[in-house]
Design goal:
The chain has about 70 residues and is mainly β. It is about 0% helix and about 55% strand. A hairpin with a 5-residue loop joins strand 2 and strand 3.
Length: about 70
């Protein structure tokens, strides 16, 4: 996931096939969810500043990473 921290949009690289991407805030609420494929740009410009958890669910498993929105 680059860039991190992010201002307007980020990209996910290294995906093989489709993945379900979800962004969760610190309260555990899903604030964004979308199925993505490849190096797609994800806009987060409408979200407030803060810490989010990016969850990628693929056929190979689940990956989670922290994302800081500036």
């Amino acid at each position: 996931i680059t860039p991190n921290p992010v201002k307007d949009a980020f990209q996910v690289s290294g995906l093989e096939g489709a993945a379900l991407l979800s962004l969760t805030d610190t309260n555990g609420k899903v604030v964004f969810s979308k199925e993505i494929t490849g190096n797609e740009s994800i806009s987060v410009s409408s979200l407030p500043q803060g810490l989010y958890i990016v969850k990628l669910t693929t056929a190979n498993g689940v990956v989670q990473q922290k994302l800081i929105k500036q």
